[in-house]
Description:
Layout (H helix, E strand, L loop, with lengths): L5 E4 L3 H18 L5 E7 L6 H5 L2 E6 L2 E3 L6 E3 L4 H10 L4 E3 L9 H10 L2 E2 L4 H7 L2 H10 L15 H11 L3 E5 L8 E4 L5 H16 L4 E5 L7 E7 L5 E8 L3 E2 L2 E2 L2
Parallel strand pairs: 1-2, 1-6, 2-3, 6-7
Antiparallel strand pairs: 4-5, 8-9, 8-10, 11-12, 13-14
Amino acid sequence: MTPIRRLAIVNRGEPAIRALNAIADLNHEAGGHRLTSIVLYTEPDARALFVRRADEAIALGPATFVDPSDGARKSAYLDEARVLDTLIAAAVDAVWVGWGFVAEHASFAQICEKAGIVFVGPDSATIRRLGDKVAAKELAEQVGVPVVPWSNGFLADPEQARAVADRLGYPLVLKAAAGGGGRGIRVVTDPAQLESAFRSARDEAGLAFGDPSIFAEQYLARARHVEVQIIADGQGGTWAVGLRDCSVQRRNQKVL
């Protein structure tokens, strides 16, 4: 087991603050400064609270970069090669990514594994199967778990989305296959809204997660959002630490 002394946080805002609070609690319980926090930040966040509270803060530069693979402008936190180089230069033992950005990128977890940096979370193989919502729905169907009627795959263009909508009916919801945090989600109640909603969801997904893939499913207006929290130590120990009802939301993001 790799001892963790230097933990990097590849996120910003609330996720970063939550991680810093947890590190402070762990250090307090340990009776000393046992875990060093390192945050990565972009230029607009130079004076942000999470930057000022961390033990060390490393600048990533501008908030966005142009991805040479597709020419799209994306968050600097999605520049996996640059983030990894920064982590290696900072001699971190482990990295915590929170939610959003690279949190559900199997590719980032994999390059951390190859570099000998502990990725605090599921391994890359697990993320590859579950981090992509389309792959996760397909896996659920394979093992007999009921799923909401959906597009049975990615939507290539508005025309395909329209054909799926005709089959599923309205209202329906378009969702980003990657990431989370309520980004890349559009509820469509009328056929006239479909094309603009498709392009809007795809564009937001590409900007937020570096992956514009979207799918569709029936919209359940009165569904509840209930999660089971799981913690595993990587050594065979796994705990279900209870349920939480996340149904109170604003703009598809949890409030309570």
